[in-house]
Write a structure and sequence with these properties.
This protein is an all-alpha fold. It has two domains: 108 residues, no CATH class; 48 residues, no CATH class. The chain has eight helices and no strands.
Length: 202
């Protein structure tokens, strides 16, 4: 049985279909590997509730991220293979169209997990498009590293939004910034100045 399975995996005519299945597997595994540690840290740092509730929240977030990434890779690779088969070759637009459809179907619902993933990708896209614009000659090569200016503008904008238009920021970012910039102004004694963030009445 194992020999037959290995022989099937080596057959060229099934390669596209098998790549779709392996992509689903890799999406599920990668999603779990990325989300589980993140959810664990964020839940225990910022969420209240019983241990059972916290573990349930971690499991739900991990499952959602893993499932969505698996579905997306499956959809993307399937559409890519279908377009390539229909046109007889692979062209760059195939990738864009397949990913747009996959993004709409899998990540189109506005929820905390999808929102984080899309924002993560958006920041990388902006950097990537900037570099591409320089490579293609659409904008000149900067004489000095523009990163310090980008860092200044990003931090200036996010703190301005936090201070004056907080509701426009994602809830997890609001929680992080509240902890850093507001909770640091409140204390009653040494216990909640150095040891704990907030004093418990009990």
């Amino acid at each position: 049985l194992l020999r037959a399975a290995n022989a099937l995996l080596l057959q060229r005519r099934y390669r596209a279909a098998l790549a779709v299945i392996k992509g689903f597997r890799n999406g599920a595994v990668y999603g779990a590997k990325i989300r589980a540690p993140h959810a664990l840290v964020m839940t225990f740092l910022f969420k209240s509730g019983s241990l059972r509730e916290k573990l349930k929240s971690i499991a739900q977030a991990t499952y959602a991220h893993s499932r969505n990434l698996a579905y997306f890779v499956f959809t993307y690779k399937g559409l890519l293979a279908a377009q390539s088969r229909l046109q007889g070759k692979k062209i760059p637009f195939h990738s864009f169209l397949a990913a747009c459809i996959g993004g709409w179907l899998v990540f189109g619902e506005n929820n905390p997990i999808n929102s984080q993933i899309v924002m993560y990708l958006l920041s990388r896209i902006l950097f990537g498009l900037s570099r591409l614009a320089v490579q293609k000659g659409y904008i000149p090569q900067p004489r000095q590293d523009p990163f310090p200016l980008v860092a200044a503008l990003v931090w200036g904008t996010v703190l301005w939004l936090f201070e004056y238009h907080r509701d426009t920021l994602q809830p997890s970012l609001q929680s992080s910034m509240t902890y850093l910039y507001e909770d640091s102004e409140v204390w009653h004694d040494l216990s909640d100045f150095l040891i704990y963030n907030k004093r418990t009445d009990s």
